[in-house]
Amino acid sequence: MESDSTTIVNSGLFVDPHAPDQKTDSERKLLRRIDWRLLPILGILYALALVDRTNISIARVVGMDEDLGLSVGTRFSIVVGVYFIPYTLFQLPSNLLLRKVSPRKLVSLCVISWGTAQLVMGFATSWKVVAFLRAVLGAMEAGFFPSVVYIISTWYTRHEVQTRLAIFYVVAILIGGFSAFLAYAISLLSGKLGIAGWAWIFIIEGAVTVAFGIIGWFLLPGFPDQNEFLSPDDTAIVLDRVQNDRGDSLPDVLTRKKLVDAFDWRVAAYAFMFLCATISTYSVGFFVTLILRGLGWSVSASLLLSAPPFVFAGISVVAVSRLSDFYRQRAIFIAAQTAVSILGWSLTGFAPSGVWRYAGLFLSNAGSSGTVIGILAYSSNNIVSHSKRAIVSSVIVSAGGIGGLLASYIFTEASAPRYVPGITVTIVSQGFLLLVLCATTVFFHRQNAWAIRNSAQLEGHPGFMYTL
């Protein structure tokens, strides 16, 4: 067995930042090829998912409110929140089907289906119909995000994953950031063919989603051992890299015992942290335009000003993820970004100046977006086996659906335009995230130390150490 110091370096407990890159030129070239094959198409499809689930708030601002009476009572919260019920319930079954159906078929069918639901929403004549279609949207989108996280994690070693997740995610949030202004531009079609401007948003954006779902049928990647775009030699290199890193390059058979054993307290901890992080991200996504309207900006100005916080978040997420992968540390970066999110929401909720409240949106968006990616990488790094990866990724993302459901109800009409109760709940949730993060990190540190002292194996794989 390797010496203790070597084991620690290779496990991520300590890394010399000046250590030479161990990848060969051929490996780097192969990784770039995989990156270009996976990340752009997955990022675009996730961007469409984000746009389709959050454009309800833009449609509301440009006339849907008046036509369908969304401001009455809790109707808007119901319309927003009902999406997350099927979105949460259907993620695990969908991920368990992924290998049997194949990623290309399952994911592209999900995209085409939710795009169709989005398009039909443009012809809704009551808020109840919109609520029903939002539930359909949630059911169809349920299988997408956990599948993508699962797929990406199977292609890369543990300390390459976060950067890839960040790039995929940033493509989505950058497109999503400008989607508000694009939706406003689409709404200017109001009256064409007798259709309201808000309805055109759903019709056009839904049609675009369907089109990309069809494209995805031909472009979406599968798992490494099933891929059709690499040569057998290149595929062997990919599988060997993953096998040497964590010992699960090939799928294992899912059994009832594995399904039960996967649900331990660590999974609950990851899920709770992700829930807290998504309360913040969904709060920004659903309510940034309404918060800006509350600051006194016009509709067009509010939509335009909603984009810069997403651009800033995109730059921040990639930069921090690169650092996290380089130093092979997760918890310290998650904690720092959570603190940034708390600072941002504190400014938005309680600063007297409108300028500082707007600046807070930059920080809360950047911090919470980075935390989402960090938690996904943190959990992925500390899991071994395909079956557990499929289960855990879906459970964690399902918890994010609960976070979205909570976000849709804590920002109430009665608390507009400052939304102080919702912002307060969001800040408190970030504090709980930090507490759970501290507990898991201490546990992993002690487990690593125990394994070194006793020359023992963790997760049944020789040399495996938990990433802190």
Automatic annotation (TrEMBL):
Membrane topology of this protein: Multi-pass membrane protein
One Pfam family linked to the record: MFS_1
Coiled-coil positions: none
Entry's localization field: Membrane
Any single Gene Ontology cellular-component annotation: membrane
PROSITE patterns noted in UniProt: MFS
Gene3D superfamilies (alphabetical): MFS general substrate transporter like domains
UniProt keyword terms in alphabetical order: Membrane, Transmembrane, Transmembrane helix, Transport
Transmembrane segments: 38-56, 76-94, 106-125, 131-153, 165-186, 198-220, 267-291, 297-320, 332-352, 358-378, 390-411, 423-444
Domain of life: Eukaryota
Cross-referenced InterPro entries: MFS (IPR011701), MFS_dom (IPR020846), MFS_trans_sf (IPR036259)
Keyword flag Repeat: no
Occurrences of domain Major facilitator superfamily (MFS) profile (ranges): 38-449
GO MF annotation, one: transmembrane transporter activity
PANTHER family per UniProt: MAJOR FACILITATOR SUPERFAMILY (MFS) PROFILE DOMAIN-CONTAINING PROTEIN, PERMEASE-RELATED
Protein name in the entry: MFS domain-containing protein
